């Protein structure tokens, strides 16, 4: 049986790197796409693809590269890219230039949406037994408005993407497709913020790749515990 493929869009030094390492250790063929991608394989065999998610029209080429280089579409697709722009005037939350709002929303909403479109195209070509899961790295901002102006574009993006991820999860459930908005929390349910744990994401995402049974589309999770409901 061919090794399953995971595509990670947005691969930074914390969450993205940890997720990549975890899946590789679990026997997956790994492809990562990021601005610093090299369009080549690393010494560890990871396919590195150069991509700029401020341009959603470029997302399809990432999927094309995965199929061309790894031989099949990715069954697990993880969107981990994110963007924000601080207000130009610290005293005015709405001083972020419209062009920057558009650019950040491309990264936070439009590019992951296009990635989901490409994912389902690819899933239709995979064997029936293959796991088919889309995971979006979210946070608490789809539920809570944080009084931090710098987080405006990020929060708008997370809230918007949570909506389409949740809708897609219900709409495609009959086909065996899952769409997950993954949201790491502190054990008391509070916002993790900059305390995000890379290995915790890697472990939880690997669990989701194996089985999403009992896990809702808004998957709040805690390090070393996995899915935890805070409803």
Walkthrough of the structure:
The protein has helices at 15-25, 59-70, 98-123, 152-171, 198-210; strands at 5-9, 29-34, 40-41, 47-50, 76-79, 133-137, 178-184, 218-222, 226-227. The chain has 231 residues and is of the alpha/beta class. It has a nine-stranded mixed beta sheet with strand order 3-4-2-1-5-6-7-8-9, sandwiched between helices.
Notable traits:
17% strand; alpha/beta; single chain; nine-stranded mixed β-sheet; 231 residues; 5 helices
Number of strands: 9
**Silhouette:** globular
Tell me the distance between the termini. Answer: 40 Å
Q: How does the helix and strand content classify structurally?
A: alpha/beta
Uncertain stretches: none
> What order do the SSEs take from the amino end to the carboxyl end, as H and E?
EHEEEHEHEHEHEE
Q: How many whole angstroms does the radius of gyration measure?
A: 17 Å
Beta-strand portion reads: 15-25%
**What order do the strands of the largest sheet run in, or round the barrel if closed?**
3-4-2-1-5-6-7-8-9
Largest sheet: 9 strands, mixed
How helix-rich are the residues, as a percent range?
A: 25-40%
Reconstruct the topology from this structure:
Elements: E1 5-9, H1 15-25, E2 29-34, E3 40-41, E4 47-50, H2 59-70, E5 76-79, H3 98-123, E6 133-137, H4 152-171, E7 178-184, H5 198-210, E8 218-222, E9 226-227
Parallel strand pairs: 1-2, 1-5, 2-4, 5-6, 6-7, 7-8
Antiparallel strand pairs: 3-4, 8-9
């Amino acid at each position: 049986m061919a090794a399953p493929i995971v595509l990670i869009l947005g691969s930074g030094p914390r969450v993205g790197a940890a997720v990549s390492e975890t899946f590789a250790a679990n026997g997956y063929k790994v492809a990562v796409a990021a601005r610093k991608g090299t369009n080549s394989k690393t010494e560890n065999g990871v396919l590195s693809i150069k991509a700029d998610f401020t341009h959603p029209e470029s997302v399809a080429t990432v999927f094309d590269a995965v199929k061309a280089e790894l031989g099949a579409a990715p069954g697990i697709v993880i969107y981990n890219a994110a963007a924000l722009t601080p207000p130009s005037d610290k005293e005015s939350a709405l001083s972020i230039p419209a062009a920057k709002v558009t650019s950040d929303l491309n990264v936070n909403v439009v590019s992951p949406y296009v990635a989901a479109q490409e994912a389902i195209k690819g899933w239709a070509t995979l064997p029936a037994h293959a796991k088919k899961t889309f995971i979006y790295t979210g946070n608490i901002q789809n539920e809570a408005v944080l009084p931090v102006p710098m987080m405006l574009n990020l929060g708008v993006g997370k809230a918007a993407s949570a909506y389409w991820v949740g809708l897609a999860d219900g709409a495609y459930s009959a086909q065996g497709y899952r769409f997950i908005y993954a949201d790491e929390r502190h054990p008391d349910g509070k916002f993790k913020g900059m305390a995000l744990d890379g290995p915790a994401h890697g472990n939880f995402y690997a669990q989701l790749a194996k089985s999403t049974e009992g896990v809702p589309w808004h998957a709040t999770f805690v390090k070393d515990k996995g899915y935890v409901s805070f409803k």
